[in-house]
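Hypothesis: this fold can be encoded by more than one sequence.
Test: take the structure tokens below, design a sequence, compare later.
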């Protein structure tokens, strides 16, 4: 899938809302989570690695991403909904999958996967970055990307992290550039939506930290 992130723009009117881990829908607003600073602050953003027992959380985040930022991902809501729990469990077992905001009201996710073949095991793939609209502008995306990079750096002999992002997603591209990624090419017509709209993908890479 494309690693494109939704536009991390201005905060939503409900900055305390999260994602229900059972439905993938936005929860009711409450007290703001302690670890969700404004983008200009230096406070921490809570990021946890999801495990095989977190299938419901992972599925909910994926469904939320397909609902709220459908043009940023190659997959669709229907495709994600049809995937069995075993698919999600396999990804959680094999990849580094991280959630921001904790497990009860997660507000974002990212995954990183090492290439499995012998000649490509020096590379890892960052994918599925999503930040819920109400959590944007607070450093959540940066914290998630940093967690993915740190995970990749912990893998033996991984030298390079790759990703793709929709060329029109300027805020996401700016985030990746701040995190050290550089563009090295464009894949034309990388994605085609049901209404016939094409999207190009920008190909980006950076060395492991």
């Amino acid at each position: 899938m494309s690693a494109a992130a939704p536009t991390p723009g201005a905060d939503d009117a409900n900055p305390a809302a999260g994602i229900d881990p059972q439905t993938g829908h936005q929860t009711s607003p409450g007290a703001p989570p302690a670890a969700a600073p404004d983008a200009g602050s230096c406070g921490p953003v809570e990021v946890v690695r999801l495990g095989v027992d977190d299938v419901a959380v992972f599925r909910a985040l994926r469904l939320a991403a397909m609902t709220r930022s459908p043009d940023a991902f190659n997959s669709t809501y229907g495709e994600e909904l049809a995937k069995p729990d075993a698919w999600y469990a396999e990804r959680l077992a094999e990849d580094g999958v991280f959630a921001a905001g904790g497990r009860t009201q997660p507000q974002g996710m990212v995954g990183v996967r090492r290439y499995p073949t012998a000649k490509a095991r020096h590379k890892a793939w960052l994918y599925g970055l999503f930040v819920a609209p109400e959590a944007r502008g607070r450093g959540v995306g940066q914290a998630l990307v940093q967690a993915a990079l740190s995970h990749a750096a912990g893998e033996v002999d991984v030298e390079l992290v790759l990703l793709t992002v929709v060329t029109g997603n300027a805020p996401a591209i700016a985030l990746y550039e701040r995190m050290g990624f550089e563009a090295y090419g464009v894949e034309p017509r990388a994605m085609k939506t049901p209404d016939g709209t094409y999207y190009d993908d920008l190909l980006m890479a950076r060395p492991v930290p």
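The first strand starts at residue 47 and ends at 49. Helices lie at 55-68, 77-82, 85-94, 140-153, 170-178.
Hypothesis status: open.
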